[in-house]
Amino acid sequence: MYGPEGFYRRPEGPAGHFRTSVHASPLFAAAVARLLCRVDEALDRPAVLDFVDMAAGRGELAAGVLAALPADVAPRVRARAVEVGGRPPGLDHRIEWRSELPRGITGLLFANEWLDNVPVEVAETDAAGVARRVLVRGDGAERLGEPVGGADAGWLARWWPLPPEPGRRAEIGLPRDAAWASAVSALDRGLAVAVDYGHTADARPPFGTLTGFRDGRETRPVPDGSCDITAHVALDACAAACAPPEAVCTPSGTTCTPPDAARTPSDTAHPPSSTAHTSPGTARTPSGTTCTPSGTARTPPDAAHTPSDTAHPPSSTAHMSPGTARTPSDTARTPPGTPRTPPGTAHTPPGARLLTQRAALRALGLSGARPPLALASSDPAAYVRALAAAGEAAELTAPGGLGDFGWLLRPAGIPDLFVDVPDHEEQ
To answer: Residue 91 and residue 344: Cα distance in Å, rounded?
Structure first.
């Protein structure tokens, strides 16, 4: 995915193939800027306020957040974009471009469609009811390999038990759990947020979610760099990967190490944001698409996180592209019957919250309500602008589309900023 001719090295960038929430509307960056201001207040307005855009794509979110910040906050913000790809030309000079996650963050770490880009192993039940690894060739052809064992088998048993029915699939999320825990451990004080299309234990997709995207359409996931490869995220498992700070981390909250973290390749802990990030359900909406079709979920697996053998990735080959909300035009990226809305926090540990994007953005002041008709008479231009903004807000919060993305929240040293937001909201 990040090779010389890789999918994420193309000049058009991810936005040429699908839209994430960032691409859908500047209202998304404005909402993240408001969240950063709330974190600032909770931290008592530190001299330096960090904003870290994990899996930054082409830096669109970081630039949008800086542009939306109030004048009394912006001068104190240290914006850093973490991305494997090179710095895009013309990016705001205030944004520091890095290939690795910084440590000692005081502020907001925001990972929009990053975890779906961290590669995972795919397991499938064979005719005898045994869960085996799915192996894939460079041309996309698959076959079953050895039985799943060790830590991967333990993860399946806990988070995604496979019934003996042949053909049932699961995507083993250990690398994502480790990547998220590593990101959380980089936070001294503030808030870490992961946004992705995902699922929880009470609503796992029966046949997995691995898929590909190219030119705004869902396609077969061929690991040759020609398309984006993605899979939805087991967000509840990620939430539990790092126990509450008081339970495992040092007093500063910086050393929370997930179980089996040693198994994660060195570059996995800070996978490329590679993508613009959209993930299944994540509404990777193809460029030019104004509304994410219901049932559309797009999860790209950024192979960028795959070690040198990426050309023929193991079944794990489900690479998710960070934050990619890929919703192909008129294409439902989620397999039929796959629930994409995180059911809540029943499986999240104390200190973590799992909300829908719809609930989170509404709490940050985003509403898709139509402006009053009276405004059309008194100020027609203002009415048209308000109507356009309402349409964009409606897309970002739409059930069956971008609104179904999951927001995984982990505060460190500050209170829950979404304490009044119900885990289950009316649509």
So the answer is: 37
Q: Rounded distance, CA 186 to CA 211, Å?
A: 31
Q: Torsion-angle region of residue 279: left (phi > 0), alpha (psi -120 to 50) or beta?
A: beta
* CB of 195 closer than 8 Å to CB of 405: yes
Q: In the numeric block, which tokens belong to residue 215?
A: 């030119």
One-letter amino acid for residue 328 of the chain: P
pLDDT at 209 over 80: yes
Q: Is 112 helix (H, G, I), strand (E, B) or coil?
A: strand
Largest Cα–Cα distance of the chain, in whole Å? Answer: 71
Quick check: 39 pLDDT over 90?
yes
> What is the rounded CA–CA span in Å between residue 242 and residue 187?
12
Write down the mean pLDDT value for the chain.
77
Give all strands (DSSP E) within 268-356, no chain letters: 353-356
Give the whole-angstrom CA distance, residue 304 versus residue 117. 8
Q: What is the pLDDT of residues 382-419, one digit of tens each?
A: 778 777 777 777 787 888 888 899 999 999 999 999 98
d(CA 42, CA 341): 29
Distance of CA 236 to CAs 142, 338, 427, Å?
28, 16, 22
CA 350 to chain CA centroid, nearest Å: 21
* Nearest by Cα to 77 from 88, 69, 87, 89: 69
